[in-house]
C-alpha cells in the first residue's frame, strides 16, 4: 500500500535569520501540508545503502526507525527550524530499496544551546 499526501513544495534559497544576520541555512524545501493547513520543512537524504536498516544514523525503535538525536543531521534540522520559524521538519532518508520518513517537532532547548555556541564562535 502506498501512502499519499496532500503537500505543496515551495521554492527556497538561502535563508538569513533577521535576528542574527550571521546565521543562515538552506533547507531543501518549505512544505505546505494542506491536510493540516500548516507549513513546515522537508529535508531529504539520499544514501548509497540498499535499506534504511543499514543507515548508521537511524536506530531501530520498536518496529520502526528513528533519527538518532545525537547525530549532526538532528542538530541541522533543529537549527533550520529555529532560523526559519517553522515548527516541524519531515526528514526523509531514501535508500535503494526502501525509505524512512519522520516528522521532527521543533525543540527550542536545542536551538537555544546551539545559538549560544554559535554566538561565541562568531564573536
TrEMBL record:
Gene3D superfamilies: 3.90.320.10. It comes from the Eukaryota. Transmembrane segments: none annotated. GO terms for biological process: DNA repair. This is Uncharacterized protein.
Amino acid at each position: 500500500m502506498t501512502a499519499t499526501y496532500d503537500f505543496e513544495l515551495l521554492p527556497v534559497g538561502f535563508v538569513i535569520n533577521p535576528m542574527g544576520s550571521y546565521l543562515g541555512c538552506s533547507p531543501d524545501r518549505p512544505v505546505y501540508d494542506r491536510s493540516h493547513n500548516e507549513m513546515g520543512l522537508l529535508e531529504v537524504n539520499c544514501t548509497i545503502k540498499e535499506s534504511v536498516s543499514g543507515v548508521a544514523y537511524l536506530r531501530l525503535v520498536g518496529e520502526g526507525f528513528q533519527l538518532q538525536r545525537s547525530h549532526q543531521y538532528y542538530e541541522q534540522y533543529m537549527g533550520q527550524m529555529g532560523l526559519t520559524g517553522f515548527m516541524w521538519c519531515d526528514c526523509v532518508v531514501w535508500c535503494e530499496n526502501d525509505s524512512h520518513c519522520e516528522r521532527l517537532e521543533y525543540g527550542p532547548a536545542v536551538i537555544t544551546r546551539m545559538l549560544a555556541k554559535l554566538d561565541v564562535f562568531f564573536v
